[in-house]
């Protein structure tokens, strides 16, 4: 083990053995998982409330991990379905960059229309591109009174 540390140029690692590194990584992974779960619950509740405000028939779709909020945004915007085909392009090398940018543009457009559908300013969709502000704006849109 010492040979591998010296070979990698890490030396003694400050007295931390591999067990301590594994424990530190496990603690980080546990904390990140808990934070991720809390954010998923918050966003699902918020998008479900937005779906109810927009009069959608199945606002519970917000609980689908990953794409649930996008489905609510898409349905509330009452836009065409074909931009979802861009997701296929995201698995093709070199095309994935263009498909990802194009899909992001459509998500912003859908968000703009979604905010207008629940009587909020459409320009709030631009603010969703800022991560922490995203959480605040979605919460305001979901639980504020019209």
Report the span from N to C terminus. 64 Å
Q: How many discrete domains?
A: 1
Rounded Rg: 21 Å
Any low-confidence stretches, pLDDT <50, length ≥5? Answer: none
Structure annotation, total helices: 7
**How many strands in all?**
0
| Share of helix, binned | 55-70%
The best one-word shape is: globular
Give the SSE layout.
Elements: H1 2-8, H2 18-53, H3 68-77, H4 86-89, H5 95-117, H6 124-127, H7 131-143
Helix pairs in contact: 2-3, 2-7, 3-5
Question: How would you describe this structure in keywords?
Answer:
146 residues; mainly alpha
Task: Please give a structural write-up.
- The protein has 146 residues and is mainly alpha-helical.
- It has one domain (2-143).
- Helices cover 66% and strands 0% of the residues.
- It has seven helices and no strands.
- The chain has helices at residues 2-8, 18-53, 68-77, 86-89, 95-117, 124-127, 131-143.
- Helix 2 (18-53) packs parallel to helix 7 (131-143).
- The chain is globular, with a radius of gyration of 21 Å.
- The mean pLDDT is 89.
What would a concise description of this structure say?
The chain is mainly alpha-helical and 146 residues long.
């Amino acid at each position: 083990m010492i040979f591998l540390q010296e070979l990698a140029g890490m030396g003694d690692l400050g007295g931390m053995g591999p067990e301590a590194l594994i424990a530190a990584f496990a603690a980080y992974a546990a904390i990140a998982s808990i934070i991720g779960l809390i954010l998923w619950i918050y966003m699902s509740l918020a998008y479900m409330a937005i779906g109810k405000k927009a009069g959608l028939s199945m606002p519970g779709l917000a609980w689908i991990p990953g794409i649930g909020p996008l489905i609510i945004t898409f349905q509330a915007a009452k836009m065409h379905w074909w931009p979802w085909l861009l997701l296929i392009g995201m698995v093709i090398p070199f095309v994935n960059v263009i498909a990802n940018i194009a899909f992001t543009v459509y998500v912003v457009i859908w968000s703009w229309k979604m905010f207008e559908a629940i009587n909020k300013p459409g320009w709030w969709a631009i603010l969703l591109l800022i991560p922490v502000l995203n959480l605040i704006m979605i919460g305001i849109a979901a639980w504020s009174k019209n």
